[in-house]
């Protein structure tokens, strides 16, 4: 309800005439001329009859002077000075019309009215007093209105926060808020601003709670269901996120009720296909592996396949059907185990991570040319892919990155030595590439008819993987690697690490796998290409790796 003092009529401004005894007639004359203002309720008039030396008053002891808002001071000259007192403003916490020094020294509001005679014209004085009184009342009224508005905003905001705790305001609740806004005469702008602030606060709180929930789940997994030793760090995180103890406790209890989690189907089956020289399926086998699942946000997971360590021949030879000089010399690389994402990063996964706090650069929420939650994200630069990995690492507490070029080829081949992991040819029945291109290559000429190769396809669309359980390694989108592009494999690392040439200034970065717009001769396991790290296109995406669980 509004404060009752705001509804009261404005009080008259207290005006005090202070004069020397010898100017009694002037005082009475001035009182007479000001009586009209008093009758109108604009001022409350009083007179202080005491002797005066003509020196301006400091620290007046008279209680009437202390109560006055305006003092009309008749000196021995005779001269009239008009002063403003601060008492009214201090009592109501209103802005002062005139600054008053800390020692309560009087301040002149207007230049003195001098050269008064026994019959002065009081009109200018009356006009000045009227103006000052009206100014004071105008400021009082404005302050009352501002106070009323602020009270209304505060009450509206408190009620709206109460209603919006579940993220929605019901029709009945909206009516209650509308009545409150009408009662306080809140503007549409006031209400819109409150709603914007309320939505922002709700979104922040929701995000913070989810971040805390993710942290509790990770700690629970890391400590095998025992949270006792994690309470100190979780409490620090709770304070940093602005989450109350009650809410944090409720989140922990909800998670603990579900612990241990029900045993998932730890081994996921998938099909591996081999095709003959005509591109027809000649063999199909079913494999099973256990994918590691990383939860990004509710209902959005990242699946990772464990890639066993081992040796392989990286690159191509002159005897291969497809080969290029930048794939030579073929050399042996030995890699430790690592984990790679089952699919190229999807647009759904990108959005979940792109909304997290920036580390180095901004990320667009929806950069892709082709739209779809399960389509691979594309039109992202190498720098943006690295930023994604950095944000993902901070979210999960694990070190994610782009794969090295050696890791990518080793994972793509999956222990095969053929040109593709399907065999020595490829088919549009099992991969998304431009199969309509006429190609002449090492005495090979044929048209590969197909129905894809016009846009990206959902990850896993062809329902076949390689022996490591990885999908879409040939075609769909080319994939960024961590390495700086080199024109040959001379001096290439033999341990599977990324080959980063700092002297090259990272003018080009490696991309692998070919894409929907590529012919088959750009999609084989050893094929290499590059782009500048700040470039992006609808043909270029990425997947992520990590070295430990």
TrEMBL record:
Residues 306-546 form the Sulfatase-modifying factor enzyme-like domain. Signal peptide: none annotated. InterPro entries: CTDL_fold (IPR016187), Sulfatase_Mod_Factor_Kinase (IPR051043), SUMF_dom (IPR005532), SUMF_sf (IPR042095). Coiled coil: none annotated. It comes from the Bacteria. It holds the Pfam family FGE-sulfatase. One of its GO terms (molecular function) is formylglycine-generating oxidase activity. PANTHER family: FORMYLGLYCINE-GENERATING ENZYME, SULFATASE MODIFYING FACTOR 1, 2. This is Sulfatase-modifying factor enzyme-like domain-containing protein.
């Amino acid at each position: 309800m509004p404060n009752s003092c705001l509804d009261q009529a404005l009080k008259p401004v207290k005006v005090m005439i202070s004069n020397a005894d010898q100017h009694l007639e002037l005082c009475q004359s001035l009182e007479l001329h000001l009586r009209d203002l008093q009758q109108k309720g604009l001022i409350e008039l009083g007179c202080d009859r005491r002797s005066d030396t003509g020196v301006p008053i400091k620290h007046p002891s008279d209680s009437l002077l202390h109560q006055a808002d305006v003092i009309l001071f008749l000196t021995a000259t005779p001269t009239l000075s008009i002063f403003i007192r601060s008492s009214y403003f201090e009592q109501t916490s209103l802005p002062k019309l005139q600054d008053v020094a800390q020692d309560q020294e009087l301040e002149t509001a207007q230049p003195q009215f001098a050269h008064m005679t026994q019959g002065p014209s009081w009109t200018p004085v009356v006009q000045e007093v009227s103006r000052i009184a009206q100014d004071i009342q105008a400021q009082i009224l404005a302050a009352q209105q501002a106070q009323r508005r602020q009270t209304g905003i505060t009450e509206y905001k408190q009620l709206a926060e109460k209603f919006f705790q579940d993220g929605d305001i019901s029709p009945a609740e909206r009516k209650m808020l509308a009545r409150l806004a009408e009662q306080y005469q809140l503007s549409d702008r006031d209400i819109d601003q409150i709603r914007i602030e309320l939505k922002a606060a709700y979104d922040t709180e929701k995000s913070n709670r989810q971040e805390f929930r993710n942290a509790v789940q990770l700690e629970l997994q890391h400590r095998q269901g025992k949270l006792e030793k994690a309470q100190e760090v979780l409490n620090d995180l709770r304070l940093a996120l602005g989450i109350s103890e009650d809410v944090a406790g409720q989140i922990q209890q909800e998670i603990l009720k579900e612990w241990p989690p029900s045993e998932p189907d730890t081994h996921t089956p998938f099909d591996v296909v081999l095709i003959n020289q005509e591109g027809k399926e000649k063999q199909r086998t079913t494999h099973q592996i256990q994918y590691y699942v990383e939860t990004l946000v509710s209902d959005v997971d990242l699946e990772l396949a464990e890639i066993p360590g081992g040796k392989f021949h990286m690159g191509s030879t002159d005897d291969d059907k497809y080969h290029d000089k930048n794939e030579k010399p073929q050399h042996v690389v030995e890699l430790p185990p690592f984990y790679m994402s089952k699919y190229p990063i999807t647009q759904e996964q990108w959005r979940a991570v792109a909304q997290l706090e920036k580390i180095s650069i901004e990320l667009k929420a929806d950069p892709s040319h082709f739209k779809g939650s399960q389509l691979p994200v594309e039109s992202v630069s190498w720098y943006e892919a690295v930023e994604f990995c950095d944000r993902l690492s901070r979210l999960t507490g694990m070190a994610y990155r782009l794969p090295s070029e050696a890791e990518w080829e080793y994972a793509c081949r999956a222990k095969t030595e053929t040109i593709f992991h399907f065999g020595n040819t490829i088919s549009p029945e099992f991969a998304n590439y431009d199969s309509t291109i006429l190609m002449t290559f090492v005495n090979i000429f044929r048209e590969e008819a197909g129905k894809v190769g016009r846009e990206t396809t959902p990850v896993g669309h062809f329902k076949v993987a390689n022996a490591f359980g990885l999908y879409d390694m040939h075609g769909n989108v080319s994939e960024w690697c961590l390495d700086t592009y080199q024109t040959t494999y001379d001096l290439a690392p033999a341990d599977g690490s990324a080959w980063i040439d700092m002297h090259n200034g990272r003018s080009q970065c490696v991309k692998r796998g070919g894409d929907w717009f590529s012919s088959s001769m750009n999609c084989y396991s050893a094929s290499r290409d590059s782009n500048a790290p700040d470039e992006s296109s609808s043909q270029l995406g990425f997947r992520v790796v990590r070295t430990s669980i």
